[in-house]
């Protein structure tokens, strides 16, 4: 019987997602590398394999029902089950100077696009992968969020949480709320689901501004993906501990 655990990481061809895949691979997981750009996907898989990771490519556009269904069928063929799902794929949406998304002038199309990826994409992928996850004795789901989604932190005038981002930040608040409701639905099962904040990581997502490396940013997601059976669920974590909702 093959006891190798199987993980799927979305948006894993670069940045934090790549390092989550790399970190899980180093722990012995067989990793499905989810990405929408097939050329970048192939490059990432080759790089991971060169580093000793048992990786396979999963073409995946989280905003497409068809793509997500195809991805679930691919994992069914490749592995037959899934132990870990890391919903990492995300976008910030168009912004003005200084990364500002002014709510008073915000194009509603930007909001729709961000929510489609950051929230609806997570729901779409999670629900498609649930039959595979339910075959695992210890399923784990990690939703990569951000501290800017914390209403507590955003509402505190004494905390500098960064620029006003009226599309991106609320999308992460929405994602956090969805995470809580999944946890409620999974109560009494072996499925643990949590939200993770990687911190301000220097990647092309933010123009490579930030004090943390992708490896550092990936650490909390890897920890939550490998929680023991008595681990927490329905919570929001950074490396420093629980983040207030």
Kindly describe this structure:
The mean pLDDT is 95. This protein has helices spanning 15-26, 38-50, 65-78, 108-133, 151-154, 168-185, 214-225, and strands at residues 6-9, 30-35, 54-59, 84-87, 140-144, 192-196, 236-238, 241-242. The chain has seven helices and eight strands; from the N terminus they run βαβαβαβαβααβαββ. The chain has an eight-stranded mixed β-sheet with strand order 3-2-1-4-5-6-7-8, with helices on both faces. It starts with 5 loop residues before the first strand and ends with a strand. Helix content is 40%, strand content 14%. It has 245 residues and is of the alpha/beta class.
Q: Please give the count of helices.
A: 7
Rg, please?
17 Å
Measured by DSSP, the beta-strand proportion falls in: 5-15%
Overall pLDDT confidence: 95
Instruction: Give the overall form.
Output: globular
> Termini separation (Å)?
42 Å
């Amino acid at each position: 019987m093959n006891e190798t655990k199987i993980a799927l990481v979305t948006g894993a061809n670069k940045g934090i997602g790549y390092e989550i895949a790399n970190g899980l691979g180093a722990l012995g997981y067989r990793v499905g590398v989810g990405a929408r750009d097939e050329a970048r996907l192939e490059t990432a898989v080759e790089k991971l394999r060169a580093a000793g990771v048992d990786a396979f490519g999963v073409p995946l556009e989280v905003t497409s029902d068809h793509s997500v269904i195809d991805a679930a069928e691919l994992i069914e063929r490749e592995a037959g089950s899934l132990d870990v799902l890391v919903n990492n794929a995300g976008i910030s949406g168009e912004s003005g100077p200084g990364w500002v998304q002014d709510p008073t002038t915000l194009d509603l199309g930007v909001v729709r696009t961000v929510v489609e990826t950051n929230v609806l994409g997570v729901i779409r992928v999670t629900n498609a992968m649930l039959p595979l996850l339910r075959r695992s004795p210890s399923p784990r789901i990690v939703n990569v969020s951000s501290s800017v989604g914390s209403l507590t932190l955003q509402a505190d005038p004494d905390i500098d949480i960064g620029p006003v981002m009226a599309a991106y930040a609320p999308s992460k608040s929405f994602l956090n709320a969805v995470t809580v409701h999944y946890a409620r639905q999974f109560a009494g099962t072996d499925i643990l689901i949590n939200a993770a904040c990687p911190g301000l990581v220097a990647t092309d997502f933010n123009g490579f501004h930030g004090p943390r490396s992708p490896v550092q940013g990936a650490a909390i997601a890897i920890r939550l993906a490998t929680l023991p059976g008595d681990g927490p669920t329905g919570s929001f974590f950074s490396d420093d501990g629980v983040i207030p909702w």
